[in-house]
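Ticket 4471: requesting a sanity check on a complex prediction with phosphoric acid mono(formamide)ester. Repro inputs:
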Amino acid sequence: MKQFISVEDVPDIQHLVNKALAYKINPYLHSTLGNKKRMGLLFLNPSMRTRLSTQVAAQQLGMEVVVFNVGQDGWALEFEEGAIMQGHTVEHIKDAAPILGKYFNVIGVRTFPGLHNKEEDYAEFYLQQIIHYAGVPIISLESATLHPLQSLTDIITIQEHFKEKRKPKIVLTWAPHIKALPQCVANSFAQWITQWNQADFVITHPEGYELAENFTKGAIITHNQTEALQDADFVYVKNWSAYREYGKVLGNHSNWMLTMDKLQHTNNAKIMHCLPVRRNIEISDEVLDSQRSLVTEQAANRVWAAQAVLSEILTASSHE
Ligand code: CP
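Returned structure tokens:
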């Protein structure tokens, strides 16, 4: 694997899942693979889980890690081609990224969408420029439209918790939120689950919250949350802002919060969320504090997902 930006970079999802689970059993299985290699983690937006789990994963492979919070620690970056830089930005990405490529063997990058310009966000304007100018393998730590490390973690967690011989029913349900959030976790989850092709997959959301079709091909989509939740084995809860009316919050849908009574017709469903979660807005305390909730385990699995991805990238680069 030469980079990890989306599921399209992954030749075999199941191989990556199995590798992650092997690291979970033995974290130091390949403890010298990254010796004398350095990873830079660039954050243009905040993070707790992604930042810490990727650091731990890289260290378990023997790498050194440097974290750089672009907005706080460094100069404000300019990304516009041909910009006349008389505003607040101090350094152009085409000057900064090649230097980062000299310091680091692998770079992890987190960017978020502006949620104002759909074309710019869905072209992954910021991430693509870093890929273009850095000249070393890039791992997405969440981008404007996708969160592949999260989705890999989610599949690992589902596989660990489903032991029956049939396919699990997985439901991605929209949840309310107080802010307009990106579509990236939902896009990515839909993309990975459909390509993994080992589940019956239903997406439910209020009218107007349709995701981009290229990510949801193969999923059943319904506006009826009750119907969607029937017989579910896993319920993945996430808010996202509208894609069509781009970045908008379309009214009050507080009745979409996941509560215990909504789970009564599921197949004793396990509850997932990428975190951070707004308690009693997205999911009730009762659900989050119950045995059904996988959210802590899911977040803990971020280490193994990051370690599997990094391991594949280090192995591929050592063969060049
Ligand atoms: N789920 C997730 O990406 O969490 P952080 O924003 O804390 O990294």
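Notes from triage: The mean pLDDT is 97. Leaving this open until the requester confirms.
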